[in-house]
Specification:
globular, 4 helices, alpha/beta, 192 residues, six-stranded parallel β-sheet, two-stranded antiparallel sheet, 22% helix
């Protein structure tokens, strides 16, 4: 990780060290991290590998990677809504439904997400995936691994690793016209 002169932490693509946003502003270049993710997914991909993205940030990544890698067909989309462990309080927060335009049985699947944090969304998505069949292999690739895992889930590839305070959320944003990526860092409201 590198820091600029004003002590503002930033993440270096492909870096395996950790940057903390406490006391400064986190600077993440989503397009640079996407290029690193493209390189990583290209090296992970086999002849019969399929891409599937977690709705919504991972879905955007999978769709763009499908195009940039010159792959035929469409990338899959997986929703975590029906398998979330907080379904009772959250309900169907996502309007995106799962769509897998390939046979899951025996498939080699690269699962994509924008930010890996507790691992709970990935667990829910893997449960959803197994509702469609039994893949031969599932590997996870993410733009950012922010630590804080509550489940034993790790990414096979992370373009960057950062540490954020628990009261901050990090999510991928996409410009509608150009499809360019950026990150949004938000401070969560304190619960009363």
């Amino acid at each position: 990780m590198s820091s600029n002169a004003t002590s503002t932490p930033s993440a270096t693509p492909g870096s395996t060290s950790t940057t903390t946003a406490a006391g400064g502003h986190l600077t993440l270049d989503a397009e640079a991290l996407y290029r690193e993710l493209l390189r990583g997914v290209r090296s992970m991909r086999g002849a019969n590998t399929h891409l599937a993205g977690v709705a919504s940030g991972g879905m955007w990544l999978a769709q763009r990677l499908q195009k940039d890698l010159g792959l035929d067909g469409e990338a899959g989309v997986l929703s975590s809504a029906l398998h979330r462990d907080d379904f009772a309080s959250r309900g169907l927060a996502s309007s995106t439904s799962s769509v897998l335009p390939f046979d899951v049985n025996g498939a080699d699947i690269i699962l994509l997400d924008d930010v890996l944090y507790t691992g709970r969304t990935v667990r829910a998505v893997i449960n959803e995936l197994y509702d469609y069949g039994r893949p031969a292999c599932v590997r996870l690739a993410v733009l950012v691994d922010r630590g804080g895992r509550e489940l034993p889930i790790e990414a096979a590839f992370a373009a960057a690793r950062v540490a954020l305070p628990a009261n901050q959320s990090l999510s991928l944003a996409r410009v509608q016209d150009s499809g360019a990526f950026s990150f949004e860092v938000k401070v969560k409201d304190k619960e009363v």
